[in-house]
Amino acid sequence: MSVVHVPETDVLRRQDPELAEILYGERERQATTLQLVAAENFTSPAVLAALGSSLANKYAEGYPGARHHGGCEIVDVAERIAVDRAKALFGADHANVQAHSGSSAVLAAYAALLRPGDTVLALGLPYGGHLTHGSPANFSGRWFDFVPYGVDAETGLIDYEQVRTLARTHRPKAIVCGSIAYPRHIDYAFFREVADEAGAHLIADAAHPIGLVAGGAAPSPVPYADVVCATTHKVLRGPRGGMILCGSELAERVDRAVFPFTQGGAQMHTIAAKAVAFGEAATPAFAAYTHQVVANARVLAAGLAAEGLHVTTGGTDTHLITADPAPLGVDGRAARGLLAAAGIVLDCCALPHAHDRGLRLGTAAVTTQGMREGEMARVSALMARVLRQETAAQRARAEVRELTGAFAPYPG
Ligand SMILES: Cc1ncc(COP(=O)(O)O)c(C=O)c1O
Protein backbone atom coordinates (compact mmCIF):
# COMPACT_ATOMS: atom_id res chain seq x y z
CA MET A 1 0.00 0.00 0.00
CA SER A 2 1.25 3.51 -0.69
CA VAL A 3 0.16 6.75 0.92
CA VAL A 4 -2.06 8.76 -1.43
CA HIS A 5 -2.72 11.65 0.88
CA VAL A 6 0.59 13.46 0.79
CA PRO A 7 -0.56 16.32 -1.51
CA GLU A 8 -3.69 16.95 0.60
CA THR A 9 -1.80 16.93 3.88
CA ASP A 10 0.78 19.28 2.32
CA VAL A 11 -2.08 21.68 1.60
CA LEU A 12 -3.19 21.39 5.21
CA ARG A 13 0.33 21.94 6.48
CA ARG A 14 0.59 25.19 4.49
CA GLN A 15 -2.83 26.48 5.52
CA ASP A 16 -3.18 25.19 9.07
CA PRO A 17 0.12 23.88 10.46
CA GLU A 18 -1.40 23.47 13.91
CA LEU A 19 -3.92 20.90 12.68
CA ALA A 20 -1.45 19.37 10.22
CA GLU A 21 0.86 18.62 13.14
CA ILE A 22 -1.96 16.78 14.87
CA LEU A 23 -2.62 14.65 11.78
CA TYR A 24 1.06 13.83 11.37
CA GLY A 25 1.34 13.12 15.09
CA GLU A 26 -1.56 10.68 15.02
CA ARG A 27 -0.19 8.96 11.91
CA GLU A 28 3.13 8.58 13.70
CA ARG A 29 1.44 7.25 16.86
CA GLN A 30 -0.48 4.66 14.84
CA ALA A 31 2.65 3.58 12.97
CA THR A 32 5.01 3.31 15.92
CA THR A 33 2.80 1.75 18.61
CA LEU A 34 0.94 -1.57 18.51
CA GLN A 35 -2.76 -1.15 17.72
CA LEU A 36 -4.51 -3.94 19.59
CA VAL A 37 -7.84 -2.14 20.13
CA ALA A 38 -10.25 -4.86 19.00
CA ALA A 39 -12.54 -2.43 17.17
CA GLU A 40 -9.83 -0.78 15.06
CA ASN A 41 -8.07 -1.46 11.78
CA PHE A 42 -6.07 0.31 9.06
CA THR A 43 -8.20 1.17 6.04
CA SER A 44 -6.59 1.04 2.62
CA PRO A 45 -5.33 4.18 0.84
CA ALA A 46 -8.23 3.70 -1.61
CA VAL A 47 -10.77 3.89 1.23
CA LEU A 48 -9.01 6.99 2.58
CA ALA A 49 -9.06 8.53 -0.90
CA ALA A 50 -12.84 8.12 -1.13
CA LEU A 51 -13.27 9.57 2.38
CA GLY A 52 -11.19 12.63 1.55
CA SER A 53 -12.89 13.24 -1.80
CA SER A 54 -15.29 15.86 -3.19
CA LEU A 55 -18.18 13.55 -2.33
CA ALA A 56 -17.84 15.02 1.16
CA ASN A 57 -19.36 18.22 -0.24
CA LYS A 58 -22.58 16.64 -1.45
CA TYR A 59 -25.93 16.78 0.31
CA ALA A 60 -28.06 13.74 -0.49
CA GLU A 61 -31.16 13.29 1.66
CA GLY A 62 -33.25 10.32 0.59
CA TYR A 63 -32.28 7.32 -1.51
CA PRO A 64 -30.89 6.92 -5.06
CA GLY A 65 -33.48 8.13 -7.59
CA ALA A 66 -35.57 9.77 -4.82
CA ARG A 67 -33.46 12.54 -3.29
CA HIS A 68 -34.52 15.81 -1.74
CA HIS A 69 -31.51 17.60 -3.25
CA GLY A 70 -30.45 18.34 -6.81
CA GLY A 71 -27.24 17.15 -8.38
CA CYS A 72 -27.31 13.65 -6.91
CA GLU A 73 -27.03 11.75 -10.18
CA ILE A 74 -23.39 10.82 -9.63
CA VAL A 75 -23.51 10.05 -5.92
CA ASP A 76 -26.62 7.95 -6.59
CA VAL A 77 -24.40 5.63 -8.61
CA ALA A 78 -21.95 5.39 -5.70
CA GLU A 79 -24.73 4.40 -3.30
CA ARG A 80 -26.19 1.86 -5.73
CA ILE A 81 -22.75 0.28 -6.12
CA ALA A 82 -22.29 0.17 -2.33
CA VAL A 83 -25.71 -1.46 -1.84
CA ASP A 84 -25.16 -4.01 -4.64
CA ARG A 85 -21.70 -4.92 -3.35
CA ALA A 86 -22.98 -5.31 0.24
CA LYS A 87 -25.86 -7.53 -0.92
CA ALA A 88 -23.53 -9.72 -2.97
CA LEU A 89 -20.87 -9.89 -0.25
CA PHE A 90 -23.27 -11.01 2.47
CA GLY A 91 -25.93 -12.78 0.39
CA ALA A 92 -28.61 -10.40 1.67
CA ASP A 93 -31.83 -9.37 -0.13
CA HIS A 94 -31.44 -5.79 1.02
CA ALA A 95 -28.70 -3.52 2.35
CA ASN A 96 -28.93 -0.03 3.80
CA VAL A 97 -25.50 1.62 3.76
CA GLN A 98 -26.52 5.03 5.12
CA ALA A 99 -26.33 4.36 8.87
CA HIS A 100 -23.74 6.81 10.20
CA SER A 101 -22.41 4.34 12.79
CA GLY A 102 -23.02 0.99 14.43
CA SER A 103 -25.18 2.67 17.07
CA SER A 104 -27.25 4.43 14.38
CA ALA A 105 -27.77 1.06 12.69
CA VAL A 106 -29.08 -0.47 15.93
CA LEU A 107 -31.31 2.55 16.59
CA ALA A 108 -32.78 2.18 13.10
CA ALA A 109 -33.31 -1.57 13.59
CA TYR A 110 -35.27 -0.88 16.79
CA ALA A 111 -37.20 1.90 15.06
CA ALA A 112 -38.11 -0.47 12.23
CA LEU A 113 -39.30 -3.32 14.45
CA LEU A 114 -40.30 -1.97 17.88
CA ARG A 115 -42.43 0.56 19.72
CA PRO A 116 -41.27 2.43 22.83
CA GLY A 117 -41.87 0.31 25.92
CA ASP A 118 -41.44 -3.02 24.10
CA THR A 119 -39.51 -5.79 25.82
CA VAL A 120 -36.16 -6.76 24.30
CA LEU A 121 -33.81 -9.58 25.31
CA ALA A 122 -30.10 -8.84 24.92
CA LEU A 123 -26.73 -9.77 26.36
CA GLY A 124 -26.35 -7.78 29.60
CA LEU A 125 -23.75 -5.03 29.62
CA PRO A 126 -21.60 -6.69 32.34
CA TYR A 127 -21.28 -9.72 30.03
CA GLY A 128 -20.35 -7.85 26.85
CA GLY A 129 -23.55 -6.21 25.65
CA HIS A 130 -23.15 -2.86 23.84
CA LEU A 131 -24.57 0.43 25.15
CA THR A 132 -27.34 0.09 22.57
CA HIS A 133 -28.37 -3.20 24.17
CA GLY A 134 -30.15 -1.58 27.10
CA SER A 135 -27.78 0.77 28.91
CA PRO A 136 -29.76 3.26 31.02
CA ALA A 137 -27.38 5.94 29.70
CA ASN A 138 -28.45 5.18 26.11
CA PHE A 139 -31.69 5.59 24.11
CA SER A 140 -32.08 1.82 24.24
CA GLY A 141 -32.38 1.60 28.02
CA ARG A 142 -34.52 4.73 28.15
CA TRP A 143 -37.06 3.73 25.52
CA PHE A 144 -37.28 -0.05 25.78
CA ASP A 145 -37.65 -2.60 28.53
CA PHE A 146 -34.47 -4.66 28.28
CA VAL A 147 -34.15 -8.07 29.90
CA PRO A 148 -30.49 -9.15 30.08
CA TYR A 149 -29.16 -12.65 29.52
CA GLY A 150 -25.66 -13.60 30.61
CA VAL A 151 -22.77 -15.96 30.18
CA ASP A 152 -21.92 -19.05 32.19
CA ALA A 153 -19.72 -18.19 35.18
CA GLU A 154 -17.43 -21.19 34.59
CA THR A 155 -17.04 -21.29 30.83
CA GLY A 156 -17.73 -17.66 29.87
CA LEU A 157 -19.98 -18.98 27.07
CA ILE A 158 -23.46 -17.54 26.41
CA ASP A 159 -25.96 -19.22 28.71
CA TYR A 160 -28.19 -20.46 25.92
CA GLU A 161 -30.63 -22.20 28.26
CA GLN A 162 -31.11 -18.94 30.16
CA VAL A 163 -31.88 -17.23 26.83
CA ARG A 164 -34.59 -19.82 26.16
CA THR A 165 -36.06 -19.54 29.66
CA LEU A 166 -36.10 -15.72 29.64
CA ALA A 167 -37.70 -15.68 26.17
CA ARG A 168 -40.46 -18.02 27.38
CA THR A 169 -41.04 -15.96 30.53
CA HIS A 170 -40.88 -12.43 29.09
CA ARG A 171 -42.14 -12.99 25.51
CA PRO A 172 -39.91 -10.18 24.11
CA LYS A 173 -40.74 -8.35 20.87
CA ALA A 174 -37.09 -8.70 19.83
CA ILE A 175 -34.03 -10.69 20.80
CA VAL A 176 -30.60 -9.15 20.19
CA CYS A 177 -27.52 -11.32 19.73
CA GLY A 178 -24.12 -9.69 19.42
CA SER A 179 -21.50 -8.27 21.72
CA ILE A 180 -18.56 -5.93 22.10
CA ALA A 181 -16.41 -8.55 23.79
CA TYR A 182 -17.64 -12.10 23.09
CA PRO A 183 -14.70 -14.00 21.55
CA ARG A 184 -16.63 -17.05 20.32
CA HIS A 185 -18.96 -17.67 17.39
CA ILE A 186 -22.63 -17.11 18.18
CA ASP A 187 -25.13 -19.91 17.54
CA TYR A 188 -27.48 -17.90 15.30
CA ALA A 189 -29.63 -20.96 14.52
CA PHE A 190 -30.34 -21.34 18.24
CA PHE A 191 -31.35 -17.69 18.58
CA ARG A 192 -33.62 -18.04 15.54
CA GLU A 193 -35.34 -21.05 17.07
CA VAL A 194 -35.90 -19.23 20.39
CA ALA A 195 -37.12 -16.08 18.64
CA ASP A 196 -39.61 -18.10 16.59
CA GLU A 197 -40.90 -19.84 19.69
CA ALA A 198 -41.39 -16.48 21.45
CA GLY A 199 -42.80 -14.73 18.36
CA ALA A 200 -39.90 -12.25 18.53
CA HIS A 201 -37.82 -10.54 15.88
CA LEU A 202 -34.17 -11.57 15.85
CA ILE A 203 -31.67 -8.71 15.55
CA ALA A 204 -28.02 -9.72 15.09
CA ASP A 205 -25.66 -6.93 16.08
CA ALA A 206 -22.67 -8.22 14.15
CA ALA A 207 -20.60 -5.03 14.47
CA HIS A 208 -17.52 -7.04 15.44
CA PRO A 209 -17.60 -10.28 13.41
CA ILE A 210 -19.06 -8.89 10.14
CA GLY A 211 -15.61 -8.55 8.54
CA LEU A 212 -14.83 -12.16 9.40
CA VAL A 213 -18.20 -13.12 7.90
CA ALA A 214 -17.27 -11.29 4.68
CA GLY A 215 -14.08 -13.32 4.43
CA GLY A 216 -15.68 -16.64 5.33
CA ALA A 217 -13.86 -16.86 8.68
CA ALA A 218 -17.02 -16.71 10.83
CA PRO A 219 -20.61 -17.95 10.42
CA SER A 220 -23.08 -15.52 8.88
CA PRO A 221 -26.11 -14.25 10.80
CA VAL A 222 -27.80 -13.23 7.52
CA PRO A 223 -29.75 -16.49 6.96
CA TYR A 224 -31.10 -16.39 10.54
CA ALA A 225 -31.69 -12.82 11.70
CA ASP A 226 -34.55 -10.59 10.59
CA VAL A 227 -32.18 -7.64 10.70
CA VAL A 228 -28.38 -7.64 10.85
CA CYS A 229 -26.69 -4.47 12.14
CA ALA A 230 -23.00 -3.93 11.54
CA THR A 231 -20.16 -1.47 11.51
CA THR A 232 -17.92 -1.12 8.47
CA HIS A 233 -14.75 -0.07 10.30
CA LYS A 234 -13.63 -3.06 12.35
CA VAL A 235 -12.28 -6.27 10.75
CA LEU A 236 -14.18 -5.24 7.58
CA ARG A 237 -11.52 -2.51 7.18
CA GLY A 238 -13.81 0.15 5.72
CA PRO A 239 -14.59 3.70 6.82
CA ARG A 240 -16.16 4.45 10.20
CA GLY A 241 -19.86 3.78 9.65
CA GLY A 242 -22.82 1.45 9.93
CA MET A 243 -24.80 -0.89 7.71
CA ILE A 244 -28.06 -2.84 7.95
CA LEU A 245 -28.90 -6.07 6.11
CA CYS A 246 -32.37 -7.60 5.94
CA GLY A 247 -34.85 -9.55 3.85
CA SER A 248 -36.85 -7.78 1.14
CA GLU A 249 -40.03 -7.83 3.27
CA LEU A 250 -38.39 -5.47 5.79
CA ALA A 251 -36.47 -3.36 3.27
CA GLU A 252 -38.87 -0.43 3.19
CA ARG A 253 -39.32 -0.33 6.97
CA VAL A 254 -35.57 -0.41 7.53
CA ASP A 255 -34.90 2.29 4.93
CA ARG A 256 -37.57 4.56 6.43
CA ALA A 257 -36.18 3.91 9.91
CA VAL A 258 -32.78 5.22 8.76
CA PHE A 259 -34.10 8.16 6.71
CA PRO A 260 -36.20 10.11 7.58
CA PHE A 261 -36.81 8.62 11.03
CA THR A 262 -33.36 8.63 12.66
CA GLN A 263 -31.05 10.42 10.21
CA GLY A 264 -30.91 13.28 7.72
CA GLY A 265 -28.57 13.54 4.75
CA ALA A 266 -26.49 10.54 3.78
CA GLN A 267 -22.72 10.98 3.98
CA MET A 268 -21.79 10.23 0.41
CA HIS A 269 -18.00 10.23 0.87
CA THR A 270 -18.40 7.55 3.54
CA ILE A 271 -20.84 5.57 1.41
CA ALA A 272 -18.37 5.64 -1.50
CA ALA A 273 -15.63 4.50 0.90
CA LYS A 274 -17.91 1.67 2.09
CA ALA A 275 -18.31 0.62 -1.57
CA VAL A 276 -14.53 0.55 -1.95
CA ALA A 277 -14.19 -1.54 1.21
CA PHE A 278 -16.91 -3.99 0.08
CA GLY A 279 -15.04 -4.36 -3.20
CA GLU A 280 -11.82 -5.14 -1.34
CA ALA A 281 -13.63 -7.54 1.01
CA ALA A 282 -14.88 -9.61 -1.96
CA THR A 283 -11.33 -10.56 -2.97
CA PRO A 284 -9.49 -13.81 -2.16
CA ALA A 285 -6.79 -11.66 -0.50
CA PHE A 286 -9.34 -10.38 2.01
CA ALA A 287 -10.60 -13.91 2.73
CA ALA A 288 -7.02 -14.95 3.44
CA TYR A 289 -6.61 -11.88 5.65
CA THR A 290 -9.64 -12.77 7.79
CA HIS A 291 -8.39 -16.33 8.34
CA GLN A 292 -5.00 -14.92 9.33
CA VAL A 293 -6.72 -12.52 11.76
CA VAL A 294 -8.25 -15.53 13.54
CA ALA A 295 -5.03 -17.57 13.43
CA ASN A 296 -3.17 -14.61 14.93
CA ALA A 297 -5.77 -14.12 17.67
CA ARG A 298 -5.58 -17.81 18.59
CA VAL A 299 -1.79 -17.65 18.96
CA LEU A 300 -2.00 -14.40 20.92
CA ALA A 301 -4.67 -15.85 23.25
CA ALA A 302 -2.68 -19.06 23.76
CA GLY A 303 0.47 -17.03 24.46
CA LEU A 304 -1.28 -14.87 27.05
CA ALA A 305 -2.80 -17.96 28.70
CA ALA A 306 0.63 -19.64 28.81
CA GLU A 307 1.98 -16.52 30.52
CA GLY A 308 -0.66 -16.91 33.24
CA LEU A 309 -3.42 -14.47 32.21
CA HIS A 310 -6.93 -15.84 32.52
CA VAL A 311 -8.29 -15.83 28.97
CA THR A 312 -12.12 -15.72 28.92
CA THR A 313 -13.65 -18.90 27.41
CA GLY A 314 -10.11 -20.32 27.20
CA GLY A 315 -9.39 -18.82 23.79
CA THR A 316 -11.08 -17.30 20.76
CA ASP A 317 -12.82 -18.11 17.46
CA THR A 318 -12.51 -14.56 16.21
CA HIS A 319 -10.24 -11.49 16.16
CA LEU A 320 -11.11 -10.67 19.76
CA ILE A 321 -9.67 -11.75 23.11
CA THR A 322 -10.62 -10.78 26.64
CA ALA A 323 -8.37 -11.66 29.54
CA ASP A 324 -7.93 -11.05 33.25
CA PRO A 325 -4.35 -10.01 34.05
CA ALA A 326 -4.92 -10.45 37.84
CA PRO A 327 -2.76 -13.62 38.08
CA LEU A 328 0.19 -11.40 37.06
CA GLY A 329 -0.52 -9.06 39.97
CA VAL A 330 -2.29 -6.20 38.16
CA ASP A 331 -5.92 -5.33 37.48
CA GLY A 332 -7.20 -4.35 34.04
CA ARG A 333 -6.88 -0.60 34.46
CA ALA A 334 -3.32 -0.78 35.80
CA ALA A 335 -2.45 -3.28 33.06
CA ARG A 336 -3.76 -0.99 30.34
CA GLY A 337 -1.63 1.85 31.74
CA LEU A 338 1.54 -0.25 31.89
CA LEU A 339 1.00 -1.50 28.35
CA ALA A 340 0.21 1.99 27.03
CA ALA A 341 3.51 3.26 28.46
CA ALA A 342 5.18 0.46 26.52
CA GLY A 343 3.42 1.45 23.29
CA ILE A 344 0.90 -1.41 23.34
CA VAL A 345 -2.56 0.08 22.88
CA LEU A 346 -5.69 -1.83 23.93
CA ASP A 347 -8.89 -1.49 25.97
CA CYS A 348 -10.22 -2.42 29.37
CA CYS A 349 -13.50 -4.31 29.50
CA ALA A 350 -15.97 -5.75 31.97
CA LEU A 351 -15.16 -9.33 32.86
CA PRO A 352 -18.13 -11.62 33.28
CA HIS A 353 -18.82 -12.47 36.93
CA ALA A 354 -15.75 -10.51 38.16
CA HIS A 355 -15.37 -7.31 40.17
CA ASP A 356 -12.24 -6.04 38.46
CA ARG A 357 -12.00 -5.03 34.84
CA GLY A 358 -10.01 -7.03 32.33
CA LEU A 359 -8.29 -6.41 29.01
CA ARG A 360 -9.87 -6.54 25.56
CA LEU A 361 -7.66 -6.82 22.50
CA GLY A 362 -7.86 -7.84 18.87
CA THR A 363 -5.70 -8.70 15.88
CA ALA A 364 -7.43 -6.90 12.96
CA ALA A 365 -4.95 -4.00 12.70
CA VAL A 366 -1.70 -5.89 13.32
CA THR A 367 -2.76 -8.50 10.73
CA THR A 368 -3.38 -5.75 8.17
CA GLN A 369 0.20 -4.66 8.87
CA GLY A 370 1.33 -8.14 7.85
CA MET A 371 2.12 -9.63 11.25
CA ARG A 372 1.64 -13.37 11.62
CA GLU A 373 1.84 -16.08 14.28
CA GLY A 374 5.53 -15.50 15.07
CA GLU A 375 4.92 -11.83 15.83
CA MET A 376 1.87 -12.69 17.97
CA ALA A 377 3.97 -15.05 20.11
CA ARG A 378 6.49 -12.24 20.52
CA VAL A 379 3.77 -9.73 21.46
CA SER A 380 2.23 -12.00 24.12
CA ALA A 381 5.64 -12.59 25.70
CA LEU A 382 6.41 -8.87 25.67
CA MET A 383 3.01 -8.05 27.19
CA ALA A 384 3.63 -10.51 30.03
CA ARG A 385 7.09 -9.06 30.74
CA VAL A 386 5.60 -5.55 30.85
CA LEU A 387 2.75 -6.63 33.14
CA ARG A 388 5.15 -8.41 35.49
CA GLN A 389 7.25 -5.24 35.32
CA GLU A 390 10.30 -7.28 34.31
CA THR A 391 10.89 -5.03 31.31
CA ALA A 392 10.91 -1.24 31.74
CA ALA A 393 8.53 0.81 29.60
CA GLN A 394 11.37 2.42 27.65
CA ARG A 395 12.94 -0.92 26.74
CA ALA A 396 9.55 -2.37 25.77
CA ARG A 397 8.79 0.70 23.66
CA ALA A 398 12.03 0.14 21.76
CA GLU A 399 10.97 -3.47 21.05
CA VAL A 400 7.57 -2.27 19.87
CA ARG A 401 9.22 0.31 17.59
CA GLU A 402 11.45 -2.37 16.12
CA LEU A 403 8.42 -4.59 15.44
CA THR A 404 6.21 -1.86 13.99
CA GLY A 405 9.16 -0.57 11.94
CA ALA A 406 9.20 -3.89 10.11
CA PHE A 407 5.40 -3.82 9.52
CA ALA A 408 4.49 -0.25 8.58
CA PRO A 409 0.71 0.20 8.14
CA TYR A 410 1.24 2.51 5.16
CA PRO A 411 4.65 1.73 3.67
CA GLY A 412 6.27 4.20 1.33
C1 LIG B 1 -21.79 -4.86 19.18
C2 LIG B 1 -21.65 -3.42 18.85
N1 LIG B 1 -22.74 -2.71 18.54
C3 LIG B 1 -22.68 -1.42 18.22
C4 LIG B 1 -21.48 -0.75 18.20
C5 LIG B 1 -21.48 0.72 17.95
O1 LIG B 1 -20.75 1.15 16.86
P1 LIG B 1 -20.37 2.71 16.75
O2 LIG B 1 -19.28 2.97 17.70
O3 LIG B 1 -19.98 2.84 15.30
O4 LIG B 1 -21.62 3.49 17.07
C6 LIG B 1 -20.30 -1.43 18.53
C7 LIG B 1 -19.01 -0.73 18.54
O5 LIG B 1 -18.00 -1.21 18.94
C8 LIG B 1 -20.39 -2.81 18.86
O6 LIG B 1 -19.30 -3.52 19.18
UniProtKB/TrEMBL annotation:
EC number(s) given by UniProt: 2.1.2.1
One Pfam family, short name: SHMT
One GO-annotated biological process of the protein: glycine biosynthetic process from serine
Location of this chain's protein in the cell: Cytoplasm
Source taxon at top rank: Bacteria
Residue intervals of the Serine hydroxymethyltransferase-like domain: 13-382
Record-linked CDD domains: SHMT (cd00378)
Residues carrying the site annotation Plays an important role in substrate specificity: 233
Keywords: Amino-acid biosynthesis, Cytoplasm, One-carbon metabolism, Pyridoxal phosphate, Transferase
Cofactor: pyridoxal 5'-phosphate
Cellular component aspect of the GO annotation: cytosol
Sites where the protein binds (6S)-5,6,7,8-tetrahydrofolate: 125, 129-131, 249
Keyword Transmembrane helix annotated: no
Main location group: cytoplasm
Catalyzed reactions: (6R)-5,10-methylene-5,6,7,8-tetrahydrofolate + glycine + H2O = (6S)-5,6,7,8-tetrahydrofolate + L-serine
Enzyme kind, highest EC tier: transferase
Listed pathway(s): One-carbon metabolism; tetrahydrofolate interconversion; Amino-acid biosynthesis; glycine biosynthesis; glycine from L-serine: step 1/1
Assembly and oligomerization: Homodimer.
HAMAP family linked to this entry: SHMT
Similarity section: Belongs to the SHMT family.
Function: Catalyzes the reversible interconversion of serine and glycine with tetrahydrofolate (THF) serving as the one-carbon carrier. This reaction serves as the major source of one-carbon groups required for the biosynthesis of purines, thymidylate, methionine, and other important biomolecules. Also exhibits THF-independent aldolase activity toward beta-hydroxyamino acids, producing glycine and aldehydes, via a retro-aldol mechanism. Thus, is able to catalyze the cleavage of L-allo-threonine.
Full protein name: Serine hydroxymethyltransferase
Species this chain originates from: Streptomyces phaeofaciens
Species classification: Bacteria, Bacillati, Actinomycetota, Actinomycetes, Kitasatosporales
